[in-house]
Amino acid sequence: MIFVLLLLFGVTSSWATDYELLLEDPDIFSPCTEGPPGSINIHQAVNLDDIVVDQEGDILHVSGNATVVWDVQPTDRITARLDFFHFNRGNWEPTVFSMATQNFCSIMYDKNQYWYKYWTRFITNRHEVEKKCFRGPDTLLAHEPFDLRLKFENFRGPLLRGRHKIVVLFNALDERNIPRPNPICLEIRGEPLKLH
Length: 196
Ligand SMILES: *[C@@H]1O[C@H](CO)[C@@H](O)[C@H](O)[C@H]1NC(C)=O
Fold this sequence. Notes:
single chain; three-stranded antiparallel β-sheet; 17% helix; binds 2-acetamido-2-deoxy-beta-D-glucopyranose; GD10289; Uncharacterised_DM11_DROME; signal
């Protein structure tokens, strides 16, 4: 029995692969090609004018502050979802990989989340951002300079090939759980490169 388990474990872990996403768009974020009606892009929601991104090989050096200008209310609940698509024969097809949270603000600083690992841990005015989250007006996101490598570790499943995209959607819901008409939709497109 132990042998079988080990064998299974061995097989499973050989499926786990590390990838890095080779970005298609040097600006990282693209507007959504099939965003929900009324959705706005990242530049309409966040002022990124003071953010500087320098690409050096596969590393993005990010520095500067951003200001959230998303027009929602301080009491709104923010939901987030992330879906992973594969471009196949002219169409973007969904894959089984997705993540969603019904209360983004409550998990923004959860150490086990990708959001934290890649981004929110570099926000220096954490106390203010924990309170205001993404809700404007004019929430400052002050960053310490950080390096971003779009690496997925321990990815399980069939080998990824070709164009893929990550679609991220943020909704703000009012007290009656009615979504505001201006969700944020962004895409990160690229090609996963197998690391080893
Ligand atoms: C970012 O904001 C913080 C806090 O207001 C400030 O101390 C810092 O100088 C700002 N950084 C840049 C690059 O403007």
